Amino acid sequence: MSKRNLLKHIIAVGGTKSEQDILFDFLDASEEEIPIMLEELVNDDFLKVEYDFGQKIYKVSTERIEVSYSAVNMFRQCELKYYFAKVAKIQKPFGFPLYTGIVIHDALEKYKKGRLLEVLGKSDETQITSKELEALIYHMWRVQEERMSPEMLDGSRFENEVEITRRLFVNYVHMHGDDFDPIEIEKWYDVPVINPYNDEPKNWHLRGKIDFELVKGKKIGDYKTSSGKKTQDWVDFETQPGFYALLLGVKNLEFVYEILNKKAKTPKAMFQRLTTYVDEQKVFQAYRMIEDFVNRALTGNCAWLPSRGEHCNYMCSYKEECIRW
Ligand code: SF4
What we know:
By secondary structure, the chain is an alpha+beta fold. It is built from 14 helices and nine strands. Among the domains are: about 5-60; about 95-175, no CATH class. Helix content is about 45%, strand content about 20%. Helix 3 crosses helix 12, helix 5 (about 95-110) packs parallel to helix 9 and helix 7 packs across helix 9.
């Protein structure tokens, strides 16, 4: 990284992390160099800078633009859905798929962190019975019940969802191998995006959560609940791993999907593990998606057009608004 880019990176991290002005007079550069470099940065609209030559103090602030994979992905799937959810801020109650995801994530987090062994007073996983796993799932659903409407709680759909979740979790625990030993679980990141084409930091902040990390900065993964079995092709075409590579600031990353498959009507549950690799192409693709999102969604510079697709059929909660649009 050039000295100029390094400076820009330091400012981006400092400025965006503090979310306010930062003061510094520490740079390993001559007194003449710093104002020149800062002026250059100001010229490309990246930063607002005021400096006091006498005091040798530079006051810098960055404009913080927050980006998350879910927002970018929603915009990419359907601009109109993004508009209803994030611009018009029309709130919708959670549906069953979201509750299922919350319950499974919570249960897996407890399980992976070894808290389950602690809670149940066991020394190793082989001693845990299916009944104890079931009890954990029922407990998780009870926590969520408080947020649900009476209509959701009343009826066979609710019983079915609880049963599916129970089977998913029990299968997962019984099928996952001893080789699977994460060093981090549910880790939050909030980092400035670096343009992979020229290594320059942007003032966009990518925020996200990594479900688990297996080898530091090299092998990470994600839990997915899905209504059908996934293929290797599907995983290889996924864009999400590229976002994680940008989050971690790496270009080569092994990415593991732990997929819990449920069939909605008959509560069969399966567990799949698929791996994919993040190469430069995926990182570039993720970057371009973010760039498009910042340039169009965040400036309102788009037509908010509906893009009818598979997702319309079963899970769009904005159907009514869409029909009236
Ligand atoms: S129903 Fe389909 S086209 Fe309409 S907002 Fe939802 S996802 Fe978009």
